[in-house]
Amino acid sequence: MGLGCLVRSEDELVSVCKMWSGTALVNQGGLMNNKVINCGSYQVLGIVFVLNEEMGSEGPKSVTIHVTGFKKFHGVAQNPTETTVNSLKDFVKKRGLPAGVTLGSCTVLETAGEGGLPTLLKVIESESSSENSSNNGQVIWLHLGVNSGSTKFAIESLAVNEATFRCADELGWQPQRLPIVPEDGGINQARKTSCSAEGILEFLKKKGFEVTMSDDAGRFVCNYVYYHSLRFAEKKGHKSIFVHVPTFNRVNQETQMEFVVALLEAIASTC
């Protein structure tokens, strides 16, 4: 009789065969020639077809990650995300990324809500072209913002439908308790990232970075952009996530560049 089993290595296959008291004829999707693995002097029971996700014939999954940062704003004369995003292409070119992972557009946005929204939407629309959608790969939007009072990186798990700016943005807009998208409901509505925020967090912690989880992206421009991005990502079948970084005087530029490259890897491997 024929048997079906999902295993990831030859050792796992041997264990399964011993458990089933059999010898397995392996067919691994054309990657390996059919071969017999002996598990002792047991009776042959059937065929085990092996699916190895990491070595599958389709190759590594395709992930394109687009990154945005912000320009300066009130109280932050040098926004580290502007420097990081402007330098990221060259840095990644030197360092490289895992197979299947592509760094897409790198865009620095005006630190503005309503007045800066057209730029964000233009970038999203332009990158949602047939080139990105035809390869059946995952498209992810990574937004970087600064938290000048923090010494750690923070993975933002959600955005809230509220614009309450503590000061005017760079285009002079200062909303108070306004819904970002009125048709979504009131200011207590929230949108969560569909990325694995916990998985990203653990990946980065294992790399040695000081990083935490956050469910409060504020009510300023960062939250405003994140909410819109999550909304449009859902419509287009993309994913979106926001990460707050410290200023360079708290965590230096080199460390932040290393962090963002690790972040790209974390997103690609968990989302």
Automatic annotation (TrEMBL):
It is an enzyme of class 3 (hydrolase). It catalyses: Release of an N-terminal pyroglutamyl group from a polypeptide, the second amino acid generally not being Pro. One of its GO terms (molecular function) is pyroglutamyl-peptidase activity. CDD domains: Peptidase_C15 (cd00501). InterPro entries: Peptidase_C15, Peptidase_C15-like, Peptidase_C15-like_sf, PGPEP1_Cys_AS. GO terms for cellular component: cytosol. Pfam families: Peptidase_C15. Keywords: Cytoplasm, Hydrolase, Protease, Thiol protease. Its EC number is 3.4.19.3. The active site is at C222. Belongs to the peptidase C15 family. This is Pyroglutamyl-peptidase I. The lineage of its organism: Eukaryota, Viridiplantae, Streptophyta, Embryophyta, Tracheophyta. The gene is LOC104248931.
